[in-house]
Every structure is written in C-alpha cells, then in structure tokens.
C-alpha cells in the first residue's frame, strides 16, 4: 500500500513539475514578447494557456483520487496539501503571463513608449523567483525557499520604481498616458507573479518543516 | 464515525461562513471608506485583515485534520476539496479590500478628484457577487452560483468603462494623473474581487453537481 502511495506521490510531483515548466515558458515568452514587441509570440502564450488550465484540473483530480484511495497522514498529508496550494498558484502565474501578453498586443499597435528601465529588471527578477521556487520544491530546500521569500520586498520596491518612471512619462506628455498605464499594469502583473512565487515557497517550507509561515512573517533561516 | 464526520463538516462550514462574514464586512467598509473618504475606517479594515488570515490558517488546519482522521470519499471529499479552494479565495478577496483601503488612504491626502460614476457601481456589484457566492455555498444552490458567474462579464465591462472615465480625467489635466491611477487600481481590485466570487461559485457547482466547470466555460443552467 505505502509503495503504491509513494509511486502516486512521485507521479503527482512529476505532473506538477511539468506544469511548472510550462508556466516558466509562458513567463519567459511573455518577457520576450514585451521586450521584442513580438505580437505573434504574445498570441502564442495566450493560446497555450488552455493546456496549463487542463493540467491544473488533471492534478486536482489525481490529488483527490489519492486522498480517497489512501488515507494520507503526516508528511504525505502535507505533500497533498502543498500540491493543492501550489497548483492554483502556478495557474494564476500563467494567467498573469497571459495578461502581460494581452497588454503587449495592445502596446504593439502603437509606437514604443521609451526604452524601459525598471520593468525588464522587475520581470527578470520575478521570473527568477518562480524558477527558484520550483527548484526549492523539487529539492525540498527550505533554505532556498526562505531566500526567495526575502526577495519579494525587493520586487515590490522595483514595482514602485517602475511606477514612478512611468508617471514621469505621463506628466511629460499626455500622449504617453494610455501606453504608460498599460506598462503600469504589466509592472503590477510581474509583481503578482513574484507574489505567487512567494506563496509557493511558503508551501515548500510547510512541506519540509511542517511549519506554516504564511501570515506569520518570515522566520530566520534555521 | 460518519456522524462524527458530519459534525466536523458542519463545524468547518460554520467556520468558513464566519470567515465569509468577516470578508463581506471588509468589502463593505472598504467601499464606505472610499465613498466617504474615511481614512480611519480604511485603517480599521487593514488592521482587521490579520484576523481573517488567522481564520484561513485555522480552516486549513482543521481540513487537514479531517482528511487525516477520516477517509473522505464522494460528496464528503468534494466538500473538503471545495473548502480548500474557497478559503484562499476569501483570503484573497479580503486582501483586495485591504488594497482598496491603502489606495483610499493615499487618495484622502489630496482633494477629491471628481464625483465618480463607474467605480461605485462596480464596487457594489462586486460586493453583491461575493454575498451571493456565499449564499450559494450555504444553500448548495448551483443555479444561483451559475447566475453569479454570468455577472462577471458585466463587472469586466464596468471596469473597462471606469478606465475610460479615468483616462479622460488624466488627459484633461496632468494634475489628475496620480489620483486617477490610484482609482484605476481600485477599479482593478474590485474586478478581482468579482473574479474571486466567480471562483467560489465554480466550487459551489462542483460541490453540488460534482462537475468542474472551471476552465470549461459556463454550462447552461440544467
């Protein structure tokens, strides 16, 4: 029974990692679509979102099956709980990459605003946080998870900075306003992608240590 | 055993409804703080958010306990899954009400922008959707849940309309820009509150009918 359960757990983990890889692709493609003003690529990301949604449903279904078949306890139960929390975070992150692409398509209908400074950095940092969050999950690495969580403040500051940059453009010339607002939203989407990475990392700490650090501030590295 | 389980399910349901009532209060107070420019009330909502966060943790803890103690199957398993999905949605909605209040506090440091048209309507509609979503959950009413889901498009349109209204103000006078952006964010927060209500309703349909309508479009009323 336990052996069967272990195999189910491994299968579920593989499925989550496959979903994670798809989500990472969506993020990196959305960044490329933004920087290279590539509408076709943006449309591709939007078109792929359905596959990620279906993956979420499949993971949900198999997690519930596993609960029904087995009676998970202790660390197995924590694993099931972590999967049930991480999967919707990944799906939300993919939706945000899709939102970025929608704004990119709108932006590409007009000439470029200015060479952007803050948003590309913010986007890269958010992407790195998601990759590291998935690494922390694979390796069961609570130290890495906590390090990722600490980066979230930095991303929040970068988002603020990108807002100030964009506000300057709006004040300079009213013709910049609607494009700058779209970019403001894009900044916000990446900030929320970083929030999603943070939430995943909180579940990794829970999985490894059995401690729920969400809503409790970040405890110092053990 | 089943009787004990039923009592645990009822307790969990009560807890979720208490959390729901707290979240509804946060939304209505955030709307009042916005319309009446009430900074003290906005600060109160922000201060109360911690109680809602703690409630989420408590519900999570008790749901996992219930899975470990019992081996839920069929409708009970669906109930457990629904609770595990609805709780974080409620917590996110409360966070969004808190975000509204943060922007309200910033707005109240400056003179009012203009009498607003679109945002108050949008806010009321989002609030109604959350109340109805919780009603649908209490009553196990999938018809009501589907009706709420259909309102989401309407809220999205109202959000678009509020953006256009605010863009006009920005183009009229650059001194309006930073306030109009804050209001644009507030519009977006209420749109996401409505999205949260939609997600809750999808889980109500799943709970009642065993059908996962998320990512599948809304099926017609049976």
Largest interface: A-B, 34 and 34 residues
* Quaternary structure state of the chains depicted: homodimer
Number of helical segments with 4 or more residues of chain A:
6
Helix fraction bin of chain A = over 70%
The span between the termini of chain A is 34 Å
Radius of gyration of chain A: 19 Å
Count of β-strands of chain A: 0
Approximately how much beta-strand content do the residues of chain A carry?
Answer: under 5%
Question: N-to-C SSE series of chain A?
Answer: HHHHHH
Biggest sheet details of chain A: none
Coarse shape of chain A: elongated
Mean pLDDT of chain A: 92
Low-confidence stretches of chain A: 218-222
Structural category of chain A is mainly alpha
Describe the protein in words:
- The structure is a homodimer of 222-residue chains.
- With 222 residues, chain A is mostly helical.
- Chain A has helices at 2-35, 39-69, 74-107, 118-139, 142-172, 177-209.
- Chain A binds chain B through residues 50, 53-54, 56-57, 60-61, 64, 67-68, 71-73, 77-78, 80-81, 84-85, 88, 163, 167, 170-171, 174, 177-178, 181, 184-185, 188, 212, 214-215, and chain B through 50, 53-54, 56-57, 60-61, 64, 67-68, 71-73, 77-78, 80-81, 84-85, 88, 163, 167, 170-171, 174, 177-178, 181, 184-185, 188, 212, 214-215.
């Amino acid at each position: 029974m336990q052996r069967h359960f272990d195999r189910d757990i491994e299968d579920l983990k593989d499925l989550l990692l496959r979903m994670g890889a798809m989500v990472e692709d969506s993020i990196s493609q959305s960044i490329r679509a933004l920087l290279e003003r590539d509408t076709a690529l943006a449309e591709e990301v939007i078109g792929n979102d359905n596959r990620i949604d279906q993956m979420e449903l499949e993971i949900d279904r198999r997690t519930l099956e596993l609960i029904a078949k087995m009676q998970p306890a202790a660390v197995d139960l924590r694993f099931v709980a972590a999967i049930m929390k991480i999967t919707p975070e990944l799906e939300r992150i993919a939706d945000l990459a899709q939102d970025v692409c929608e704004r990119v398509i709108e932006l590409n209908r007009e000439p470029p605003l200015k060479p952007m400074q803050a948003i590309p950095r913010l986007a890269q940092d958010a992407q790195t946080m998601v990759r590291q969050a998935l690494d922390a999950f694979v390796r069961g690495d609570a130290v890495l998870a906590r390090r990722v969580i600490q980066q979230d403040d930095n991303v929040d500051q970068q988002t603020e900075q990108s807002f100030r940059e964009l506000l300057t453009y709006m004040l300079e010339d009213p013709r910049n306003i609607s494009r700058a607002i779209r970019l403001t939203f894009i900044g916000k989407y990446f900030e929320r992608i970083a929030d999603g990475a943070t939430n995943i990392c909180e579940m990794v700490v829970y999985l490894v240590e059995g401690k729920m650090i969400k809503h409790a501030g970040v405890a110092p590295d053990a």
